[in-house]
Amino acid sequence: MKQTVCVIIIWTVGLLLIAGVGLNRPDRQPGGGADRTEIVLDSAQIRQQLKELARVKGPDGRPSPQYEAVEQLMQQAENQPPLYDYLLHEAEELFFNATSPWRNEELFLHILQYDLDHHGSTFKGSRREHLYRLIRKNRVGQPACDIRLQMRNGSRKRLSDFSGRYLLLVFFDPECGPCMEVLNLLRRSTDVDRLIRHDRLTLLTVYTDHHPDTWAEIKAHFPIQWQVAVDADQVVEDQHYDLKAMPTLYLLSPQQHVVLKDADVSDILTWLRTHPL
Fold first, then answer.
1. φ, ψ (nearest 5 deg) of residue 30
2. What local confidence, expressed as pLDDT, does residue 58 receive?
3. How would you class 204 by CB atoms within 10 Å of its CB: exposed for 0-12, middle for 13-18, buried for 19 or more?
4. Residues near 146 by Cβ (< 8 Å), separated by ≥ 6?
5. Which terminus in the chain has less CB density within 10 A, N or C?
6. Is the pLDDT of residue 17 over 50?
7. pTM of the model
């Protein structure tokens, strides 16, 4: 493990500081003024190193080597504030952006934790603090945030009322094309239908907007065995859940701990097919 970490750190930091980034290059100002330090950032190299970090896993599949390597990278950048800020910006784009193929919220959370631990005074009240608080909600293995819902029959319930069996939670917007595609996939899934009929799974769709006419029109078009609700707790506004892209899917355990967070529908269907419920 130690050898793997050392190789990762040396490769990552070495390429970044030698091939990708010119640091501490003294240049004379016109007129013979004092030396100044010019920071030359090669964005392509920085992004490449962060992408490679996202792929690194230890021998047991755990991400500890990438955590140690990224800490070394940030330590090297700390002496150059523009470089440090740039790394944070690129890390957000790669690891937090909903459309990024390198999305890795746990790695980004580790980066933010490092920033908090070492730069607490500038961290407080910043966008980084906002993202830190948001990502820490509904993490895999942690209890899901409880929210209030209005069901399609007019009754009021809470998310916690659906404990006791696995819960597939789907936040959607009927004007979102991908949302309707995902809902249609779930409607056609024989595995989902079987698990619902055998009381192993509850499928709960939550319309996240508050247009009464739209809600009145759509709520009757879902399968009768699905639970259908409108958000009564301002999930989007209050950010109980991070809905940066729609649809957003969660799989919760019978104890309402997060099993899959913001997962692709294909990953959820695979999980349901390969795990005994």
1. -55, 140
2. 52
3. buried
4. 158, 159, 160, 256
5. N
6. no
7. 0.76
